[in-house]
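Hi there,

I know you've been waiting on this one. I reran it after we fixed the sequence typo, so this is the corrected version. Both the input and the resulting structure follow.
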Amino acid sequence: MNKTHNDMTIKELITYIATLKQDISLQKEGLQLEEHTDICIRDMAYTLQVGREEMDERVAIVADNLEELQQGLEAYSQGKEDVAHIKYGNIKEYREKFEELLSDDLVQEYVKKLMCSGELIKIAQLWVMGAQIDWTCFYMNENRRKISLPTYPFEKTCYWITPIGEDNRLISQAKSKVVSIKKVKQEKQSEPEVNLEAEFTDENTIMAYLKDIFAKVLKIPVNMISEDENFESYGIDSIYITRLNAQLEKQFGELPSTLFFTYKNLRGLSKYFIKK
C-alpha cells in the first residue's frame, strides 16, 4: 500500500493542538485566552472515537496529554515507523483474512479485558485492523462532550454530468444524446490494454481484465478501481449489474444472477472466475 503521511488533516490537527498548548500556557500567566482553551484531551479522544465516521485508513495514538499527542501526530506525518504508541494501517489489509475473527464475540470480550487492564496499545492495534470497539466503555460514569475539531478536507475536483463543448460551455440534452462525465483539470489516465483472448490462469491477469471492464461500464479511470472496495461504494445498482453481467458473459458464458450479491469486491470475484 502506498502511504501518504503528509496529510492535510493531520497537519491541521497538529497546528490546532499547538495553538491549544500556547493558550494553556497563556492561561497560566493570567492572560486573555481564545474560546477553545478549556479543551480536554479526553473530550478530544471521545469526539474522534464516537463523533466521527470510522474509515478504512486508520491511525491510533496513545497519549496522556496534548504534548504527547502532538509528538505522535508529527511522527506519523513524517512517516516514522516502529513507534510503540502509534498504530496505523488499512483494514482492507486484514478484512479478507480476519474479518470473521475480528467481529467474533470472543474478540469483544477480549477487548473489554484489555480495557479493564489498561492495555491501550493492544486495543489500538485491534482497532486499526478493523475490530469493533465500544469506545463508550472508556468513559463510564464520566460526563464527556463532543467538541469542535478540524474537519476532513475535500478534494477540490469538479465533475460535470452534462457534456461540455470545446468552449467549456454546457451542452444541453436536446443537442446530445450521450451523457458523459468530464473530470476537470485532471490528465487522462491511460488504461491498460487487456488481451481478451488471454487464458485467465492467474489472479493478476483476471484482475486486470475485471478492472478494465468495471472502468468502462462505470466510466471511471482504472486507477480508481480498488480490489478490496465493496461494489456498493461505486454506486453499483441493478442497472450496472445487468451491464456488467452482459460484458462478463461475453468472455465467461452464462453467469449466476446472484454473482454480485455473493461476491462483494473484485478480489472475491476474481477468485470465482479463476475457479470457473
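Quick highlight: The radius of gyration is 24 Å.

Best,
R. S.
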